[in-house]
Specification:
A hairpin with a 2-residue loop joins strand 11 and strand 12. Helix 4 crosses helix 10 and helix 4 runs antiparallel to helix 11. By secondary structure, the protein is α/β, with parallel strands linked by helices. The protein starts with 10 loop residues before the first helix and ends with a strand. It folds into two domains: about 150 residues, Periplasmic binding protein-like II (D-Maltodextrin-Binding Protein, domain 2); about 100 residues, Periplasmic binding protein-like II (D-Maltodextrin-Binding Protein, domain 2), CATH 3.40.190. The strands form three sheets. Strands 6, 7, 8, 9, 10, 11 and 12 form a seven-stranded mixed sheet that branches. It has a three-stranded parallel sheet with strand order 4-1-5, sandwiched between helices. The protein has a two-stranded antiparallel sheet with strand order 2-3. Keywords: Signal.
């Protein structure tokens, strides 16, 4: 669940350079998961017919995105933006008879760019919220919650957080809605506050846990799963996923692109490509059974 954040600081990057790769969890200098393959469906005429004329004439679907936020979007060693959202958008665009073009932007500028018409879609780990729905529609593609990670073999519990050091990505809901309110509750109860270790990216926060600088790591569940997969057995989830909410592709309010994109997603769900794309990135929980706009089923 992503909100504006700034770029990674230098300390942990220097530590990662000094240690083996297994000591770090990084969103950079890596490629697709093992066994990954690009999924490019053929255009579907009935879905092509739903695409707004200006986009159809252009032949390209542009999406604002803000890497790194693995596994949703990040740059590989050749600086190409990859990730599960990029794969879903590529497949959906192909279904609509379009090419897909990601455009890197500051996260805070993506929705304004959508309003200005300089991009077609926002694809950057957007949580579909009531506040955002006032100005945008969201084609929901995944439900994800918050979950904690710990060093393998530790016994860390979110039910007993006081006095712990918790790593988070700065200004995500893990910081603003999870860890800081828990710390305030600790203080109100006369206990030690949580030491909140805020990092500019999720990989930096996960690396802090791997290196023992933090007792736990709070993150969106797919982000934690990605970190666990790449931490060489050094970290593991602890506790259940909570506060589940939908991730969605943002489109202008009441735009005809919303139903077109939802129809493309429904096609990917029906033919199994949607499930294959998410599975390639290690995401097997929180999948939607049908295309949704603002959490409502779509009838095309």
């Amino acid at each position: 669940m992503k909100f504006p954040f700034q770029r990674i600081g230098g300390f942990l990057g220097a530590v990662c350079l000094a240690l083996s790769l297994s000591a770090c969890v990084t969103n950079e200098e890596q490629g697709h998961p093992e066994g990954w393959e690009e999924i490019t469906p053929k255009p579907v005429p009935s879905i092509e017919a739903l695409v707004p004329k200006d986009i159809k004439d252009r032949g390209v679907l542009t999406a604002g995105t803000n890497p790194p936020f693995a596994p949703f979007e990040f740059r590989d060693s050749s600086h190409t933006i990859i990730g599960v959202e990029m794969d879903l958008m590529h497949a959906a665009a192909a279904t609509m008879g379009l090419k897909f073009q990601p455009k890197e932007q500051d996260f805070s500028l993506i929705l304004p760019s959508l309003s200005a018409g300089s991009i077609d879609v926002g694809a950057s780990g957007f949580t579909d919220t009531e506040e955002r729905r006032e100005n945008y529609d969201f084609v929901d593609f995944l439900y994800a919650g918050v979950q904690w990670g710990q060093q393998t073999g530790d016994d860390i519990s979110r039910e007993d957080p006081c006095g712990l050091s918790i790593a988070v990505q700065r200004t995500t809901v893990s910081e603003t809605d999870d860890v800081r309110p828990l710390s305030e509750q600790c203080v109100e109860e006369g206990k030690e506050p949580i030491e909140v270790l805020s990092y500019d990216t999720s990989d930096a926060a996960a690396t802090a846990l791997v290196l023992g600088r933090a007792d736990a790591f709070s993150a969106d569940s797919p982000v934690l799963a990605w970190a666990v997969e790449r931490a060489d057995g050094k970290i593991e989830p602890t506790g259940e996923i909570f506060d589940a909410a939908p991730y969605g592709f943002a489109v202008p309010k009441d735009s005809k692109l919303g139903p077109a994109l939802a129809a493309a997603l429904q096609y990917l769900i029906d033919n199994g490509d949607y499930q294959k794309i998410l599975a390639q990135w290690g995401i097997e929980e929180g999948l939607v059974d049908a295309a949704l706009i603002n959490e409502e089923p779509v009838n095309n």
